[in-house]
Amino acid sequence: MIEVTNLTKTYDDLQRGLFVAVDNVSFRVGPGEIFGLLGANGAVKTTVLRILSTVLKPSSGRARVLGYDVVQQAEAVRSSIGFVSNNTAIYDRMTAWEMVEYFGRLNAIPSDILRPRLETLFDQLRMNDFRDCPCAKMSTGMKQKVSIGRALIHDPPVLVFDEATLGLDVLVARNLLEVIKTLRDAGKCLIFSTHIMREVERLCDSIAIMHQGRILDIGTLEELRDRHSEHDFEELFFDLLSQHDSKIDADRAGQWSQAWANNAQPTEPA
Amino acid sequence: MSTSSPWRARPSIVWLVYLREMRDQLRDRRTIFTILILPLVLYPLLGSLLLQVAQFSQGHRSSVGIIGAENLPDSPSLLNDQGQFQDELIDSKSPMQVVLHPTMPTIDIEKSSVEASRWVQEGMFDCVLIVPKGFVAEKPDSMQLLYNFTSDPSRAANDRLLQVLVRWRDAWVQQNLAIAGVDQQILKPFQVTSVDIAPSGNRDNAFWSKMLPFVMLVWAMTGAFYPAIDLVAGEKERGTLETLLCSPALRSEIVMGKLAAVTTFSMATAILNVVSMLFTGMFVAKQVFPGGLAGGAMGTPPLAPMLWLLVALLPLSMLFSSLALAVAALARSSKEGQYYLMPLMMMALPLVMLPMLPGIGLNAGTSMIPVTGMFLMARSLMDGQYAFALAHLPIVASITMICLWLATRWAGRQFEDESVLFRSGEQWSVSAWMKHLWRDRQGDPTVGTAFGCAAAILIGLFFAKLAVTSVPADFPGIAKLILVPQIGIVLAPTLLMACMLTRSLSQSLQVRRPPLLSIPVAILLGISLHPAYMALGQLIQYVYPLSDQAVAALSPFEATINNTPIWHVILVLALVPAICEELAFRGFIFAGLLHNNGRLRAVVVTAVLFGLSHGILQQSLAAMVMGLLLGWVTLRTGSIFPSLIIHLLNNSLGVSLGRIAQYDGEWVQYVIDNSDGSPHYRVAWILMAACVSVTCLIYFSVLQPQALSQRKASRRETTKNAAPLSMSTHI
What we know:
Radius of gyration of chain A: 22 Å
Shape of chain B: globular
Oligomer: heterodimer
Strand order of the largest sheet of chain A: 6-7-8-3-9-10
Helix content of chain A: 40-55%
Distance between the termini of chain B: 44 Å
Largest interface: A-B, 57 and 48 residues
Number of helices of chain A: 9
Structural class of chain B: mainly alpha
Structural class of chain A: alpha/beta
Low-confidence stretches of chain B: 727-731
Number of strands of chain B: 7
Mean pLDDT of chain B: 83
Mean pLDDT of chain A: 85
Radius of gyration of chain B: 35 Å
């Protein structure tokens, strides 16, 4: 359902100049599967997911959702995907009902189908208590429910949850994880990005560990444990990161010595 | 599903986005206050304040002190028995209380003045009249009236007292003439009667047709700005823009929906303000000026002609809204949006104020000025000059539509550009920026450095123009006048920036080998285009005639040029400007503006900047048109050489046409008409040459845009060399 091949994204900013944010990332996710993107803050998980949701364009590489290319067929991709993120807020001056209904209409759902679907969704997500409440007056948990409702209203086959549990209390976060499991059981293809290892362990069928724009390793939880001979997932994660950082340090030292040698060459006697 | 066209839009989705934005804005108290409450409250409040001030100033009794009243003549008498001004001398609406000070010694007028000044200063009197001893016998102008300019009551008292004294003096003159037995008619040998032939409806319109479009457009701008900030910068700040971008709505549909909402608010604000001002103005005018103001010009405004304002309002509101939307997209927050939109308002304001200037009316010249032309056309319609307005409609409508198209396209592009929509909030500092400019310089300039170069050139040329006080009479002087700005102000910053801020001089200046055939075609185009360019120049001068002063200043210049060897003239006036200007405008600036697929931006903005770099308005307009063509040729060929050749040939023919006309060859008379001493191409030749030019342009149009493909190749190379995230923070 999702196929990402050699995805690369470069940025140009004041501090770092032109740099590669997403570096040659590849993965595949099938139907009825939860794919976990695990990484510390700054691992550039959100950028990968923004490319998948067509909000950003890749610099090179390819990403396909349900066979649709995220650049060439962006409109079709957006119709097939539900994207929930910390960055995707809801309109303060709309009620929960208006918000979800608006996105239903943007997805061109006919009125006779939209109304019963709204009723069902509000029942399933238990949002009827605050359906006419302006979003500005809602708690974080309520807002997150509205956001999920907005992402589910067009019944997309692919769902992306980017740090969706961030800032939620334990109860609401647990409910959200239950919703995600239910969606998996319904055959949806899900990507779940987080920096919380326990959530990945409990929820994801396959996991990619990201660090500084690269996927360090990818596989099922068992595969990762076997490959690195480490049962404790937290230790496994830290080991991978330290190995990567040591390699970077070694590369950097190599570059410095090469640069020094190049500079020193002209002064050497012939 | 295939790739969607950037301007494809489904009306149902545009309508949906529009309705949501409208509902969202109508639920915002700030918007409601600015758009609805403010106009409905502001004008009645201002009107009642004005009424009160008027009533106060009319009813306020000025206190006047008179020193030396005993020195006043008995006949004609200024004061009555009660020591107040004679009734026939004062206006019943301007009452005055007179206090006499006979005790004050008025022999020494200086001492009296000092004391009286203190009284006025301390507010004891609004003004003081000093009548010195021997007033009648001595010069009659020796009377002194002391008042305080900084005090409104004192100024009003001064005006009132002056009126009284003028009437008193007239009475005195009449008395003197009667005593001398002279007929009073001698002072007025004839009478003048002014007859206003304007229809009464137009007379009533005169004030309102000037004032209301101005008020309407200022409020149309204000009304567009706040919703634009909230709908773009505000949404970015609140995080809802990304939510919307994730939906299947196309960017074009989002832009159109938002644009329609901002335009609605802009129009609503303008209409409500005009209506509120109109009704308040009518009421206040009737109360304060019952007989009419300014000869009845501020009468009751006829409402039907005011509807013509709506004709101008819709396109101009859309224009302001598109610009506001595009600029607001640059901001990361509402606060930042306000900073960005203020300069936009400052830039648009002169276009709105220009029609308010005395003597500015609708003509071929003003109809080509964006906003101003539409404003003046609406005014003509309001004045009932329908045929006159209709004659200018094609130009006004075309200019407005072009501006509107460019503005909406810019707004659309902003929503396509992820670097605009997802600008990071990184801290800006001069040192980091300087480091960035040097460390991350690429083969070609950026948009910022292109604008920086253009700003350096335009500011430099502006100050250079200020430094020139007279046109030199000899050729070395003229050469210095041309070469110093061209090399020092146009070429030097371009080369400096190309060397310092880019990695490749040839790439940043677009010095590349063009398609081989483009060189002879450019030569042909350069020669064949000149007749049309001359005709354009003549047309521009017909529409915007050169002032007599400018003609007088240029005539010695032309005489000197004609007496100088042709190769010297071509070198100084054609070759050097062509090289310098092409390297700057079609080279560095064009290459910078091509970033992010900005083909239209590169062609249009470079042409406008190129036009602005020419000092005289008439020259600037022609240069702008030429700039469009040169930019397009550069885009097609990817090199400045073809445009340089066209520029060089155009300049060369311009400076040598007079000499060609004097050439003793039979063919000359078929090409150039020099019968009146000012050489110009014959119409038949212009048409033939234009056909050749069109053929050349067809050749360029079938070329693939080379500039962009070369840019893309260079960007791919740069991307390959980008540092990985793990290394970028350290190395």
